[in-house]
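To: structure subgroup
Subject: Chain for Friday's discussion

All,

I'm putting the inputs and outputs inline so they're searchable in the archive.
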Amino acid sequence: MSETVRPWPGTRGAFRLVKKAGGRRCVWTCTYVLVKYRPASEHDIEPIAAIHADSWRRNYRGAYSDAFLDGDVVHDRRAVWTERLKQPNPLHDTVVAERQGKIVGFVHTILDHDPVWGALLDNLHVAQQVKRRGVGTQLMARSAAAVMARGTRKSLYLMVLEGNASAQAFYRARGGECVGSEVSQPAGGGSIVGLRYVWTDPSVLLQAP
């Protein structure tokens, strides 16, 4: 028996082809698992907080303190998302990615955040088990769509850790331009350097496959 997993053209999932040799017959079966995208609600607080905390622990080690990441980070993220989703701000837009009834990623955008740079893509996180399957790209497209539909200033920016080379490559591959850096104080104390990536025309992100 052989098995191949390939992207399904024009969709946001994948299909699996399984070839079974049975005498002189070959049987092919296809399984397609759709990733759905929808606005977040207060029912999503716990899974969003869990993904956010896990992503910080995996990717922010060395930038944020170990004591914070190993201790209060889940509580911290739960408090943030409780406030955001139970008392939604009309300039905030949160979209979740859902696969088989389970949240596997989310994006949070703050419209008209900066008079120069426009909307802030404040959070983009994808569960480890679905990375490199196009979920992050599709979530960025949802962020761009919110900016183009509801933002006064039609531009988008985000801040990424100076040491997060893989994230920087991801944003550059999607048309982001690094235009500067700034030092800030992260949750848990200390200081970090963030790089600002900008999309002066976020509509380029709507062309995600």
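Points worth raising on Friday:
Strands lie at 2-7, 14-22, 25-33, 35-39, 92-99, 102-114, 118-126, 156-161, 177-184, 192-199.
The first strand starts at residue 2 and ends at 7.

D.
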